[in-house]
Amino acid sequence: xxxxxxxxxxxxxxxGGTPFEMVALNHVSVGFEKGKITGVIGxxxxxxxxxxxxxNGLLRPQSGEILLNGxxxxxxxxxxxxxxxxxxxVMQYPEYQLFDETVRADIGYAxxxxxxxxxxxxxxxKEAAAFVRLDEELLDQSPFALSGGQKRRAAIAGIIAMRPxxxxxxxxxxxxxxxxxxxxxxxxxxxxxxxxxxxxxxSHSMEDMAQYCDRIVxxxxxxxxxxxxxxxxxxxxxxxxxxxxxxxxxxxxxLALQKRGVPLExxxxxxxxxxxxxxxALQRKKAASTAPQSAGEGDHA
Amino acid sequence: xxxxxxxxxxxxxxxxxxxxxxxxxLEDVSINVRDGEYVAILGxxxxxxxxxxxxxNxxxxxxxxxIHIAGREVTAPDFTEDDMFDLRREVGMVFQxxxxxxxxxxxxxxxxxxxxxxxxPREELxxxxxxxxxxxxxxxxxLHAPHRLSGGQKQRIAIAGMIAMMPKxxxxxxxxxxxxxxxxxxxxxxxxxxxxxxxxxxLNITHYxxxxxxxxxxxxVNDGRVYMDGTPSEVFSRIDELHAIGLExxxxxxxxxxxRQKGCSLPAGYAEDEACVDLLVRLYEEA
Lengths: 301, 287
Fold this sequence. Notes:
The complex is a heterodimer. By secondary structure, chain A is of the alpha/beta class.
């Protein structure tokens, strides 16, 4: 598969040359597949937030390269703003950055700055609000009159309205209730499908990662620790636990069932996946136990 | 056992903004917490659960209704500000963002901040700080800088700061929302320990159903009212009602619910992981 974004041997150090020097990323190389949702996991301080800020040029790597469609994003440093329209970044708690008089104006801020026509801006605002399931009625309200979950949606819509090729989000669902989480994360899936966009998602929730991502990159102490499909990464539960990560609760449960002799097969990282695997196991066993009997009946005949 | 917290018919609305009529955050909430009880509060964003916590910590005052804490009525007209400071040390609060609640540049000074302001004598202070750090498993970090710790460690320092004030109740307002899996486990273990070993009442406001399952009792708040109140198994067995208000049950309970819908003969309701494994193994073996 084609990588839309490629990180090549990138290092980033905070406070280099001082006693407080901290290596946030140490010679990291990783690619992000075009048109996929990739989850980035890692313990606190593993370098996730540094990584996402490098992706859209908020931070500049001290060594190594970041390639967008094969071209270094720092080839023309003065035009880095153009990269930021193409790689949209939603930071943690983005609702703290809402500022405009109405939700409509706030979501339309970036598209206006991109120089789009008022009609196009309006179309983008409506489209983005729909992706994050924000009621159109709310567009004329002050963003400060919204509830916490609605503010979060508005802030994310403000980035989606740029229609970035790559949408990067740092903990977009932190602190939201289950419905808020599934609305926002499901909305990202729709954005990815309908615009063939690439989504990069940082989260501490292994359950969300299993449900919404295609691929996972696991960081540990400033280095890439594991990378692969959701199944590939979560099948290595022991290694994940060793670096302070985890597999989804339901996956641990499936392992316990397997250990007790229930032959579950397939993708065992979501509730529906485990339910289907269990039903298949039941059916196989029933088929196996009825098969010899029917053979026996055949003999009698 | 006595009720440590008693609330009767609490109502609260935030001030109107832009002349827009605000939905009241709390309409009518009565929740009691017994001495040493472990209660989880669930509810979707905007259900009123954080408002309830702020009323208990006297950060907000209710529009109507009554609150008793440790036998004192905090909503009584003769309840003074001094009384409030006295009582506030008995109810500690830990918030979502660990970076917003650390004040000092050295861990042990941060833990000492609360009790020092209460005028605890020096030797007693030393003892309390050491004990509190030991309790959350952070003794070896006593002389570290808090801002260089992990999220889970920072939260544990914030908890140690609470413990050093010797509260009878600690309220956790989504205190694990920003933590990685290990950090969440650390903080959850600390909560369990405070309750089971130190008999401190715990009120854990959370969106994580797995966490809520640790409590003795779960209160579900919806639209400013109490929607359900019962043991984890009572609450999680009403899975359709939870779904109706945008909540979920723990993943294993959801799994059993799906399997029941697919025709498996399994009992409805919540059970601990091991019991669920037993159920599914038996059903498989009998198939």
